[in-house]
Design goal:
By secondary structure, the protein is an alpha/beta fold. It is 32% helix and 23% strand.
Length: 461
Amino acid sequence: MDGIERWNTKEPVTFRVEAFGCPSSQYEGEAVRNLMLKEGFQEAGRDYPDVFIINTCVVTEAAARKVRKSAQKAKKNCSRTLVVLIGCYPQVYPREVISRIPEAEIIMGTEGRSRLPAVLRKRLKKENSYTWNLVGSDLPQEPLEELVVDMNYRKIRPVVKIQEGCDRYCSYCIVSRARGRPRSLPLSKALEQMRKFLEKGYREVIITGTHLGLYGKDLEQGSLVEFLQCLEELDYCFRARLSYIEPGSVTSELLHFMGRSKKMSPYLYLPLQSASNRMLGAMGRGYTVEQLESIIHLARQSIAGVSIQADVIVGFPGETEKDHRHTIERFSRWELSGLHVFPYSPRPWTPAYIQDKERVSPEVIKRRSREMREVSGDLALAFHRKMEGSNLRVLVEKVEGGWARGFSDNNIWVKFPFGQKQERGGNLKGVGTKAPDRGDFVEVSPVKFYKWGIEGKISGQ
């Protein structure tokens, strides 16, 4: 398509997309970027863009604050830049966005984003100073919007979003309001997106959704396990990794399949949130500590070398020191491989938001978060040390300064030297090994172990 011309010149309109938040948001950002390019807009280089599109996150106040700062910075850098906010933040809090982010000239929620290029054409012809509010209904109701990525994905490990929406309504969570009811991408279309990436040579694809375990529940045929079984039959050299999946969706069928699979990464990312039954009940999580322990035990029995990471919310209203200690003790006993620690963030319109009398003080939340992060570091180091004597297959993401870096199959960050040999004591000696390319699989033997990951050497050296 011909380029879209800037206001009253013959120069093409430039744009930039920035995405915040979860893997689904990252995928959507790439899809919007693809859409803009196909519609004739030109991606900005180092210059300030004519249009700055922010795919937003609002799961915490910290995420919303990052969005606001990004919009402010874009407008401060270039007053003529047209700032567009799309995604969860405008969907849930459109009035707040309009009042607190005056830099935004167009806001759009989590549906209708495929119309964005047409909307921009109209707006670029006008000199209006007010915000165009294009957020649809309070709760997204349309079928899953099929945002396709058919050009190059900018990261080594692309994401495929196969599911949208959640109907669980946990007491702290605003995501159900942002993403609507559960909807799934038809199995054939999900496989088509996977093939597009694999045909371009990508060696890992991350599979994601708002509530991934609900994939297929709204379709006449298809389930998450059926989709993964179809991936197993694809004749490409690649690995598939599940993004976070709710514990209640981790079935014995899924775990046994992952244990047999030659394509699936031995990795589970579970939003456990707590290991106190009292807190799990208050959060509306729908499972108990005993059920979590059973899931983790079965995962270890089924999947060799599995890495299990977890989300944890610290300082949820009513959380006592005893609840906090129970969570630390159980996470340690379960030998998780790492934690993603989230200080509780009150979100308006959630049941937990009104529990003012039970709020934990900011000072206590800060201290408990620090303690939980220390536990996470200890758990990670212990898990990394278990890799001693093994070989790790690493997908190279970065190559610089004589070192290559990437993630192993079980999600450990690994760095290793090339063009040099690592001797005892950590000294390096040149041996002329050819530098690997980004996107290569390399077998690496662990040498040193850290909380952040593993330092190794190319196997056989």
